[in-house]
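User: ok so my PI wants both of these folded by tonight, can you help

Assistant: No problem, let's get them done. Here's the first:
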Amino acid sequence: MSRIGKKPIPLPDKTSVRIADGMVTVTGVKGSLSRPVPPGVDLVLDGGTLLVNPKDDKRQTQAFRGLARALLANMVMGVSQGFTRVLEVNGIGYRAELSGRTLSLMLGHSHPLNYVLPEGVTAEVDKKNNITLASIDKELLGQAAANIRSFRPPEPYKGKGVKYAEETIIRKAGKSGAK
């Protein structure tokens, strides 16, 4: 049984949910998100909460119930509060600049790497080495952050590269020298 799927999703003020034609649309102060309803679940709007109920007791249906509840909770949180992700650029000469919707990264290559931000994701660059990404869609935000990190993942010897702010890089010892 899915413990996550059993929890009701509380709806904050100024947040509305509309279920029609196999699509669920959540609208809040930050914007609106839509997603198809996963198979095998029914959505019930009960006052200020949203419930995810399974159509049967199969194992796959229970898995979809937990998935649907997590996705809907992320949608509700996104349209009411939004999500942010902070990336750090570490290394001598490594820096980031933002011009319009294009993020220009100097990461030790012979040329700058230009990344066009997807629609719905905004960015801020402060101190040339911190990139703050913001969006109402958690999935889109995570994919954009992963794409930026993939240009130069942090290496274990000096920690140079692009890493998440909360990420810890386990360092390796370098050469021990001649005897």
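One down. Here's the second:
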Amino acid sequence: MTGLNDHLANVHLVDWHRVDWVLLDMDGTVLDLAFDNYFWRELVPARYAEKNGLEVDAARRELEPRFSAVQHTLPWYCTDHWTRETGINMAELKREIRTLIRPIPGVEEFLRMVQRSGRHLWIATNAHRDSWSLKLEHTGLGRYFEHVISSHDFGYPKEDRRFWEALREAYPFEPGRTLFADDSMPVLSSAQAYGIGQVIGIRKPDSGLPARPIPSMRSVETLAELAVTLADERRAPR
């Protein structure tokens, strides 16, 4: 558990005087990745096994190569793609277990603080509309965000520089005055290479799993740790 000393160590992690836009990933950054880990690692193999008369381990062996083949590409994040691949309605399956969707502890207070500061607050996600709309509706967090941008709107995942180019064309912003947080190293590297001014990794995207290192990148366990960096900020609202 993160202590006061850890929070104090992060006071200077973000230079808020150089931030006008805050772009946040959704799953694993704002929302607890425990939902998605359970969905893909447990529920989907179980339902696929049931549908095809397989043992669950056999279902996993069938599915894992399909998952690996498209990892970090747009189909990996597409509920329509996996509905076609498995014959299971992924959007309906997620809705079935929507009570398990929850924010990462402490993140909502951070969202409130950013919103009160007058900065632009956007979601930038690889999640398909079926997924992000359900999650933000269920948690009620959609009210904090000026825009929810999905990579499916542009045809490129966040790992691809073309996503950032398309995002800037559709929603003008200044990369150098932007803070972006995500739990995926390939996505963080892509944002940094594009020129996003301040990039922060999330080390504990799943509340049920230990934090993991994010090498060569500024990082926090959760966005709650960044709240202290805003606490004494005296930026006037727009």
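Residues 123 and 148 are 5 Å apart (CA to CA). The first strand starts at residue 21 and ends at 24. Good luck tonight!
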